[in-house]
């Protein structure tokens, strides 16, 4: 069964999980009620071409695949993600803020336009402040003004360490929605024990989508597959 990205829990929430193969993608999409964007990370493949083949495999069961940087959000992998995307038309890709606008423009002029490109930043521990991958700390509102002017559609913030940075995340989401940014994507340490706090914190904020990236807590270390029952456990935490 194919699920469109527009299928969102409470018309807002999507969940990004890694998928080992097409069968695993189908399993976790079913377990996640269809509110799932399966993905890969670029550093798990020896070449961009091999990663692109995996994206194409996953796209036999879903319309959108997310291509992650890998390495804990390693900005050095930005070009690898771009190359994978050019060869596979995934639909969603991760970039550091510094290359997000360039990547979006390059793809829009290529054979695979209309990709959703996020821009990665880091929390600082201070509400109203974010840190770029370059290390520069910025006022969150000024940063979002710049992001919107550059045509950036979604902001990824990592590592949030579960709900440790929830006040920063709520503030960033509220500002982003007011400035026309389409989505916020938190990552790092998110699991069934803290997902409800994150979702409840932003549930009433007017933003198109909020997509937690949930990796380590749901992956079978032996097989590398995301465990469907773990995905279902997270959804059960959120459904009334």
TrEMBL record:
Pfam families per the UniProt record, alphabetical: KDGP_aldolase (PF07071)
InterPro entries from the UniProt entry: Aldolase_TIM (IPR013785), DgaF (IPR010763)
Protein name: Imidazolonepropionase
Organism: Virgibacillus oceani
């Amino acid at each position: 069964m194919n699920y469109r990205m527009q299928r969102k829990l409470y018309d807002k929430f999507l969940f990004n999980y890694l998928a080992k193969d097409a069968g695993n993608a189908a399993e976790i999409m079913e377990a996640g009620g269809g509110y799932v964007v399966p993905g890969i990370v670029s550093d798990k493949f020896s070449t961009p071409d091999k990663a692109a083949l995996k994206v194409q495999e996953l796209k036999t069961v879903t319309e959108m695949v997310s291509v992650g940087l890998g390495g804990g959000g390693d900005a050095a992998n930005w070009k690898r993600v771009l190359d994978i995307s050019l060869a596979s038309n995934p639909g969603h890709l991760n970039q550091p803020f510094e290359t997000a606008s360039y990547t979006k423009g390059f793809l829009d002029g290529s054979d695979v336009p209309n990709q959703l490109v996020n821009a990665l930043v880091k929390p600082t521990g201070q509400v109203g402040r974010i840190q770029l991958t370059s290390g520069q700390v910025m006022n969150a509102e000024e940063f979002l003004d710049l992001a919107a002017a550059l045509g950036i559609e979604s902001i990824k913030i990592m590592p949030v360490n579960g709900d440790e940075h929830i006040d920063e995340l709520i503030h960033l989401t509220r500002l982003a929605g007011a400035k026309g940014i389409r989505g916020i994507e938190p990552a790092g340490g998110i699991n069934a024990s803290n997902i409800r706090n994150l979702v409840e914190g932003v549930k009433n904020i007017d933003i198109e989508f909020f997509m937690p990236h949930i990796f380590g807590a749901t992956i079978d270390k032996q097989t590398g597959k995301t465990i469907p029952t773990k995905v279902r456990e997270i959804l059960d935490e959120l459904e009334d």
